[in-house]
Amino acid sequence: MPASTTPSPPGQGPADLVARVNRRLAEGQVQEAYADVLLAFRQQPAPVLADLLVNAATVGERWEEALTVLADLGSLFQPHHLARCEGVLALGAGYLDQAQRCAERLMSLPDRPDTGMALMVAIAGRQADPAAQLHWMRQRERGLTQIPLSLLPPRWEIQCLLGQHEQVLAEITRLVRAVPAGQVAVHHLLKLQQAMALHGGLRFAESTAIALSLASHLTAHQAPVGDKAMTARINTRRRQSRILAVIERLVLTRGLPVVIHAGTLLGLARDGDLLPGDQDIDLAVMPPATSAQVAETLVSTGDFRPQPHGVDSGGFRALVHQPTGLTVDITEYGREGERFVSRWRHPSGVILREATVPAFTSRLVDVPALGRRLPQPDDPAALLSATYGDWRTPDPCFDTLVAAPNLRGFTAYLGSVAAIRLADNLMAGRTDMARHLAQRLAAHGLARDIAARLTGDGT
Description:
Blueprint: H1 14-26, H2 30-43, H3 47-60, H4 63-73, H5 79-93, H6 96-108, H7 113-126, H8 130-142, H9 152-161, H10 165-178, H11 184-200, H12 204-221, H13 236-254, E1 258-260, H14 262-271, E2 280-285, H15 291-299, E3 304-306, E4 317-321, E5 326-332, E6 334-336, E7 339-345, E8 351-358, E9 362-367, E10 372-377, H16 380-388, H17 400-403, H18 412-428, H19 431-442, H20 448-455
Parallel strand pairs: 2-5
Antiparallel strand pairs: 1-2, 3-4, 4-5, 6-7, 7-8, 9-10
Helix pairs in contact: 1-2, 1-3, 2-3, 3-4, 3-5, 4-5, 5-6, 5-7, 6-7, 7-8, 8-9, 9-11, 10-11, 11-12, 11-18, 12-18, 12-20, 14-16, 18-19, 19-20
């Protein structure tokens, strides 16, 4: 039955509304949840409803709409509450100047500077500026008598992007010694973070060993659970379309030497549309052009910024599209006879990942679902078969980075990535994903005991 369009009963309190809206968001009923919040505003605007509006708008990617609602009702709220809600919504909508003004207002309030600094951290992330992110993270921490553990992993990630792996490892070591042994979940988190910092420092054998030790402990001491459902972002397609409009324009007017690639191509070839859960746009560069040249062209539009990576992979590049916050991944290929080779090589010379596909040319294809003419490989099925195997059958647990059938070898880098992802998925309760990763590692002589436990073959 369709959801009711009448307001909630007058006797129903805010707590009941919050519970209902959050339940609907968790179940993927995003439009119904958003409508519930708007109906509640009509009855009795309250600060708790503003928070609920921000949450529903964020899940449903309806930031611009929610900003309009907030502008109409803003006089009802305290200045700090209005600035925080407006800042979060403006950031989601890509209005970075407006978000920064909100952050500055918050920092000018005597009891709210930490909220403003948190917003500045998020703005710097949207701008792909890790140095600015770290600055505001440090500023926020200086105002606290005790730093919550929840603030540390995001900072450590930024420090690793800036090459500060040893500082991160030293801080984690101090915390491991200070945290009581009984706080098992905290030690698990620290162990995972330690593995990630080692990985960023190219210490792949050590990161793999620590991540697998953690995964082994998790599978030996807690029962597997069902995978946690992930709420689909129903309006991501609209944001992706904005990026594809830029790609189409640059291909048609400037001959940008790219084709649609990987997950973006998979959706177009299999469904004639973008994959519902995809959160980026994938491109491949046509050799002899390079990813650096393509990235430079995109950055020159003013809307894209390079996305820093924890491990410099050479030819593979990622850009942040600042108006939407989505990422554009750019794969570089070189030609070897009748094949194209994608080779990730760290500047130190370490080969991180190699994969091959049949050589292809580019052709323009009209995509009715998107209303765009986009460059695609001349034989998309051949490219997809090399990358995914049975690409026509959806597999939500397939991890392209470490499990693609066209990989040349299973490098120490890939082993480390798979081990860290295995531990992370186990900690998050995503058992099906963990099982696939464990089986992949077991095929290369790693994590056999973990794979046996997850598949029910262990004792």
